[in-house]
Specification:
Length: 315
Amino acid sequence: MPNATVTVSEFVLHCAIETDKMTFTIVALAFIYLVSLFGNLMVIMVIIMNPHLQSPMFFYIGTLAVIDVVNSSNLIPRMLAVLLFKAATVPYGPCLLQLSVVYHLGLAESFLLSLMACDRYVAVVYPLRYPSIVTKKTVWFSILLVNIFSAAILTPYMVFATELSFCRSNILPYCFCDFVTMVHVSCTEDPRHLTLLSSTTIITGVGTLGVILLSYGRIIVAALKISSAEGKKKAFSTLLTHLLVVCLFYFPLMTSYILPGIGVQLSAEAYNVLVIIAIMVPPMMNPIIYSFRNKEIKGSIYRLWTGKRVDPDSH
């Protein structure tokens, strides 16, 4: 007799991480969270407090910092609770909410990183036209579009997630509520669920990554024309660090989301590690790569800590 379909009211999260790695994982996540929170909140604070930083480039940097704060706070405290208490119970509604926030912010960050690469491309290749092309209105409109596109792509996931039925188990072998894990645990066998994930990841991931690489490629060509060796070194150092963070964000996520849709099922631990790296590490690195290396932000942080006020009429 087939199992009866059961609508669950809650899920039990259980991180698929080996016991001997548990302590290291807890310490690492706590460290990542504290550094991410401190760094990104510092960036947001100095951009708000310094009128000179309220320009298009810094609006993108500030938006990235907000995304990283919200995403880290949405995930890491819950993950630490799961790891410390071996498992955690999450009601159905909040579980879907966490899933939607994770996917929405992940999509928004991928679009935003491509916008930031285009912003740097225009600034380097067309410096004289930059102020007329990239205005505050353009930036805010592009950020609005990023959220609209992310919500539109997310909508089918939420529809499919509500269609899933669970007749075998409500235990998710994962550190937070996740669409792929729900599909694997459910008794709803429909290939379109994971095919959707693979197809949207390929389209958005490859598309936005392609824009980033093309933009950085043009910037590299422009950097090669710089006459001074010091200028070239600085340009290439900036590009390499940006690409490092981009790769940490894109490749683990693309691997973990595309493979299940084409029939390659990763182990629970491998899937956990890949997604944790992609979602947790970039928010810690972004303030260092995009903000603390910037002389205007460094100057603002110095004035903030030393108590010196920023004069709006001086530059």
